[in-house]
Amino acid sequence: MPKNNIGRGNNPKSHGNHRLGDEKPVLKQVNLLPGHWEIIKRIGNGNSSRGVRTLLDGKKPVKNKTLTLICGLPGTGKSTLAEKLHGLAIAVDDYPGLYVDGIYQSQLQKESHQWCLNTVEAWMEDGVEISVHNTNTRNIYRKPYIELADKYGYAVHLITTQAVILPNGEKAISTHNVPAEVIESMRLGWEEFNQIPKTGMTPADVAVQMVNLQRPGAIIFDMDKTIKRPKQGRAFPNSPFDFEFLPEFKQWADGDDNDEIELYIASNQRGIAGEQKTEEFLHNEVELLSESLKKIGLDFNAMYFAPNRNTPDCLIYEDGTWLESPDYNLVFDKPNTGIFQDIIYENPNKVYWIVGDGHTDNATEDWQFAQNCQKLNPDLDVRYVPIELVNLYWTLIKYNE
To answer: Among 324, 228, 340, which Cα is nearest to 279's?
Structure first.
């Protein structure tokens, strides 16, 4: 199957980054470094060219002090997007001689970046609209352009491209055939412009949870993606029957030394409030889950489900019966501690494990729930156990006993 290329240089009649045709280009003088291009051109009808360009028919670029920084990995459509925008567009890859017979000339890296930056500044002196479509994977690479924008009074639009999906469903690839390992390295080093504070569990946190680990008197499990998941890799179940046990949970459940531990479920079910799931659906899936758990020898003391954020609402399934929310004023959805407070009131223990999947920077509610429970109850031993490590933790307590 032929490769699907996107970007510059597809046309066999192209030279460098510019498509050649019968149209006569309009030239515009700009101030560049000595020895670099002293003219820039746009060839075609305004819809097909890429790279450094001006408008045709003698029209000057639009006077609009807007700088668009298009950032993304190779092959994600930066150049394609840039050609659809108004004004002038440029990338480091437009530097003459940077690619010779398709091979990147690494000795020109610093020079090509300076050329791109100087060209942008020359255009800013004219107050025209500009697009820069470099990879710009880190803020340190974006910073010089943002500083120029501040100097010349430009507004900055920062756009990140993720992929170009072709009509046949395949992803487009880079025209420069950047090696996969290089793209992966760039992906791993990607830095978001608006960085979200990292609140997920770190390796150091995992190590701390293992110190002096003891057998729990009670384990509180999350439900979705901790005990069960939809079949066939689906993101959401298509019926209450659509679930299977996670392998890590099933391995732990098949052990022969967990009989005397009290078991609970604490799960947020905000899909009910958002109308993605009905309360009837939840009732059916929980009752089916309870039956499946009993078949593998696990009888849970109670299962708690919080449908709303920051409220005392809670659906509780205990001994085959659905109960109303307790009438005392607790906030039940995680990372609030209402569920934990109800559990320790009814069945006090000294050692609790909270097992879940919400401990990454993208979803931290289980990890924060455990930390909040420990802070509120300093006399108890509350440990957070990532579901993917539950069997490792279980092995550790055997060695400690």
So the answer is: 324
